[in-house]
Every structure is written in C-alpha cells, then in structure tokens.
Design goal:
35% of the residues lie in helices and 18% in strands. By secondary structure, it is of the alpha+beta class. It has a 5-stranded antiparallel sheet. The protein has a 4-stranded antiparallel sheet with strand order 6-7-9-8. The chain has a 3-stranded antiparallel sheet with strand order 12-13-14. Strand 13 and strand 14 form a beta hairpin. Helix 3 crosses helix 6, helix 9 runs antiparallel to helix 10 and helix 10 crosses helix 12. The longest helix has 17 residues.
C-alpha cells in the first residue's frame, strides 16, 4: 500500500477541502475556495469556515481533527481493520492518518467521504447473523485468530465505533447497524438493549427505529442515512476536541454546546430527556462520543439517542458529570436544566413523568 500524501474531503458530492500531514504527523486542513462560497463549516469550533490552512492539535486525537477522527474506526472496528490488514500482509502500525481515512473512503459513519477512496465496505441485503456472531466470539477470544470471517466482518463493518462487535447491513432497503455480544455481555444483551430502546421511546426520547433481528440481535436503523442521502454527523468529542476515553465534560457544557449550535429550545429539551434517562437507568457510560449533532437541512440539531443501556461507567461514576458531580442527585439535574434556560417546574414534571415509567 503506497502512503498517501494528500486526501480530498467531500460532502454531498461537493469538495469540502483537503488534508495533508506536517513533517511531525499533524493534520493540516484547508477549505476549498468554492466550498467557502456556498458551504457550511463541518466543525464550527475547530474548523471555522475561513481561508487558510488550519492545524490540528496533537491531543487527544493523535494529531487529527475531531471531525475526521469521528469517521475512523475505534474499538471493535479498529480491531477488525487491523486484523484485516495483517491478513493482507500489511503492518497497521505503518499507516498514517491519511492512509486510514483513505481506507474509510466513502463508507464511513456520517456523510464525509475521502479521496483517494480505498474502502472495501459493502452492505449486502442478507447476512447470516448467527454465523458472524459466532465468529466475533472467536476473534474476541484469540489475538491471533485469522479466519475467513475477518474479511467479511471488515467489509460489512465499515467504521463502527464502540467496544461491542457490530456490522452494517441492509434489510428491506434500509440501512441498519446490528450489534453482537461482547465477551462480558449477558447472553440476552440484544433483547436487553431492544427493551431499553422501547422504554426510551416511551419516555419521549427521539430514537431511531430499532428491531430485534432473529429474536436475538439488536439492530438500529442508521440516522446518518436517508432516502435523500447521507447526513453529516459530529460527536461532542469531535466538536469540542474532547477525549472521550476519560471523564472530561459536564452535562452543562453539552447544554451550552447545544444552545450555541442549534439556537433551539426544543433541542435543549431533547438533551434534558436524554440526561434524565441516563441518570434514571444508571447509564454511566455517557462519554463524549455518545452525544452527537447532525447538520440537517442547513441547521444543526441533536441526533436521535443511541447507546443507552445501564452501565457502571468508570469506577461506578458518571463519565459526564452532572452539575460537577459524578454522584449526582435529582437536584443536580434540575440545577443544570435551570441554569441552561429550562423552566424548573416543567423540568421537574418531565423528570417525574419519566421516573414513573422506569421501574
């Protein structure tokens, strides 16, 4: 594989700009002159829409911009990519950030596409979930497993993030992300996550369509894919250049980000319901990549909720603090709401309504 010196970034078939690396491995980005005339910033805080070359910070994304780091595989996706490259006789450690973005090509999460496109991902209409689920267990159990399914999982996996094994697939013309069990998960994790997705809808959270495939495998319809094309999505980690691997944010900061980006109080109420739901079900894995915003019809809005399950987080504490507390109370939740312009009595009523539904 020949090392890539320049990557062009596209959005909705329009050239956004170009990426290169400095001598010390830092990403340098420059918007295309035509895009500056008619486009919108793809990441308003780290890549404002302006002339000139912008340099990424060394941390936390190893010299990459957060918006592009979102497109790269992590967790399970990174494991499968590296195993696949090894099967092809390539050393993953020799790949630069540009090489890895090129391997994402046009098949990553969100709407950004990278040229040259060396991606190989496909989304077949039919896959054997049972077979792939069994293969993921073998891969997780052995650091040296190199079976034929590595290639299949890579080509159907794209660049999904998170620790749990998962694939992208098409069912009845719609694109889905389907999850399999991780080694530490209970056998019925698919049913559990499906039940919580239904509970979230009942509690008024905006959720994608979900389904329990073969009565076992949890699937969620991709909100970054629509009949009209791909949707640009950036995580809070990507927007704020925040290290999602460590506790680094408070919900108050996410509310402030939501207010600045969306200028819409209804989006703040969506975020409030998500915060309350995470608190009430004990989802403490509420890190900066589990919140995201999407550019929809020229305006930023909070994405539908995702990855909402009870979780112990880090040492049993919330990864994202609430009112600066990692062991928050109901009062902390109401204080955050009130400080961010939400009426306290309504916030309390929403809280009590949701609490009555979560048993």
């Amino acid at each position: 594989m020949k090392q890539i010196k320049l990557v062009e970034v596209f959005l909705a078939n329009q050239k956004v700009g170009r990426l290169a690396l400095t001598n010390d491995g830092i990403c340098a980005f420059e918007y295309d002159s035509n895009y500056l005339v008619s486009g919108s910033s793809i990441s308003p805080f780290e890549l404002p829409l302006r002339n000139g070359v912008m340099l990424a910070k060394r941390h936390p994304f190893e010299g990459n911009f957060g918006v592009f780091d979102d497109c790269l595989p992590d967790g399970w996706g990174l494991l499968i990519l590296d195993r696949y490259l090894q099967q092809q006789g390539l050393n993953p450690k020799t790949l630069t950030l540009l090489d890895r973005l090129s391997l994402v090509g046009s098949c990553g999460r969100g709407a950004l596409e990278f040229i040259p496109d060396q991606g190989f991902v496909s989304s077949p209409d039919y896959v054997s979930f049972e077979h792939l689920a069994a293969e993921t267990q073998k891969i997780l159990a052995s650091q040296t497993y190199q079976g034929d399914s590595i290639e299949a999982l890579y080509k159907q996996g794209g660049s999904p993030g998170g620790a749990r094994p998962k694939i992208f697939t098409k069912q009845d013309g719609n694109e889905w992300l389907v999850k399999f069990r991780a080694s530490s998960d209970p056998v019925n994790i698919g049913q559990i996550e499906y039940d919580y997705s239904l509970l979230a809808k009942k509690c008024g959270l905006e959720m994608p369509e979900t389904h329990l495939f073969e009565d076992k495998y949890f699937g969620v319809e991709r909100f970054d894919r629509t009949a009209h094309g791909k949707v640009h999505v950036v995580s809070v980690a990507g927007l704020l250049n925040a290290d999602y691997r460590l506790p680094c944010l408070d919900y108050a900061q996410i509310f402030q980000l939501c207010s600045v980006l969306t200028h819409n109080v209804q989006e703040l109420w969506k975020l409030y319901r998500l915060m309350v739901f995470n608190y009430l079900i004990g989802n403490k894995d509420d890190h900066a990549k589990n919140f995201a915003f999407m550019l929809w019809q020229g305006e930023w809005r909070l994405t539908p909720s995702f990855d909402i399950l009870p979780s112990s987080g880090m040492n049993g504490y919330h990864t994202t603090s609430i009112n600066d507390s990692i062991m928050p109370t109901q009062e902390d939740i109401l204080v955050v709401a009130e400080k961010n312009g939400l009426e306290r009595n309504k916030a309390l009523a929403v809280y009590n309504e949701m609490k009555s539904l979560i048993r």
